[in-house]
Amino acid sequence: MPVAGKIAGQRHLSALRDGIILTMPLIIIGSVFLILTSLPIPGYADFMASVFGNEWADKLGYPVNASFDIMAMIAAFGIAYRLAESYGVDALSAGAISIAAFLLATPFEVPFTPHGSTESIMVGGGIPITLLGSKGLFVAMLIALFSTEIYRYIIQKNIVFKMPDGVPPAVSKSFVALIPGFIIVLLVWLARLLIEMTPFQSLHNVVGDLLGTPLSILGGSLGGSLIAEFVQMLLWSCGIHGASIIGGIMAPIWYGAMDANRLAFQAGEALPSIFTTQFFQIWINVGGSGATLALVLTMLVRSRSKQMKQLGRLGIGPALFNINEPIIFGMPIVMNPLLIVPFIIAPLLTITATYIGMSTGLVARPAGIAVPWTMPPLISGYLATGGKVSGAVMQLVNLLITCAIYYPFFRIWDHQKWREESAVESGDKNVM
């Protein structure tokens, strides 16, 4: 508990988590337009072509690209902002410097293979838009943490330009950021020059080869996902917000996989990834972490205890929108040796079942559409797969699996509560 508590409050992990969340409104907005490109409605394509022309799908893709393709840049600002905020220094200046450092670390040239040639050449033309999106997310994270640590250290050492008292606060803050901003830009510039002298050529290649690829393999595998989910559920069982801790580590991997699926979906190609952010939010955490919608439904249908019936009535509303704190802390599941068992087992089995369904092609993979995690089940599964019924069917299958897992444990707990209530009503303490 003390170790997990320290991890949960670790400022850098919190900044990563909260900074990446800053991208979510834009991604959800882009996802709405992505859904509109593939609505399975008869005559829909002809209607859209008559309104927007034959290239209507490409035109609907403009907002998609404008939101998804700046994911890393927004994260660079958000992470630096939240980290600086935790240190009590000017967060806005820290975020602006982080974006400048990130753009400085990003190459202005891209490889191009001329027609009929097998060798690539470097062609100028500005920063590649792909490196501002999910492909640049790891670099954005590292730059944001690095630049903010340098920024706050210089500020806290009071190595700044001080303006007279009569200067407006906004102007004064901009001059305070001048020295740390110059030092950060200088360090990133020198690092870029040194890396360009190596075979890696850019910081993005260094991070992609040494960090991004191994972590993506781990987070994109069944074994790695099971481990991440197990640790998350174990933390929840101790009363610690497991999703916040694990999300801070795994979110960049799963967001990158989500965007890879989004690009393939737009291009009409096979979706490369199964384990994305939506995989866990939509198919595994049905009702919230631990897939507790099944537990709430069991309460409503099979409870003998008045307490469990009442809790079921209170919990069903939030559970339909994947909010389950009333159940986790009200039943409780936290520190409850009996209910911790299905709470951990249920998502592990649904991960395995969903993986089998998607890897065999029986169930459509997540299409990179950022359906809000509060979207009720069946609807969310249909939308997250780009309008495939198999997505909703898989959610229903998972619900049945989790009902079967929770039921025997719930019956024992419900019977215990019923005996306690009977003892109180009869006044017989021996019944308890």
Number of strands: 2
Structural classification: mainly alpha
Helix and strand element order:
HHHHHHHEEHHHHHHHHHHHHH
Largest sheet descriptor: 2 strands, antiparallel
Major sheet strand order: 1-2
Average predicted local confidence, pLDDT:
83
Number of helices: 20
Cα shape: globular
Low-confidence stretches: none
Q: How large a portion of the residues is in β-strands, by DSSP E?
A: under 5%
Helix residue percentage: 55-70%
The Cα radius of gyration reads 25 Å
The N- and C-terminal alpha carbons lie at a distance of 31 Å
What number of domains?
A: 2
What does this structure look like?
The protein has 432 residues and is mostly helical. It folds into 2 domains: 2-220, no CATH class; 256-431, no CATH class. The protein contains 20 helices and 2 strands. It has a two-stranded antiparallel sheet with strand order 1-2. α2 packs across α6 (71-87), α2 runs parallel beside α13 and α15 (293-302) packs across α20. The longest helix is centred in the C-terminal third of the chain and has 38 residues, at 389-426. The protein is globular.
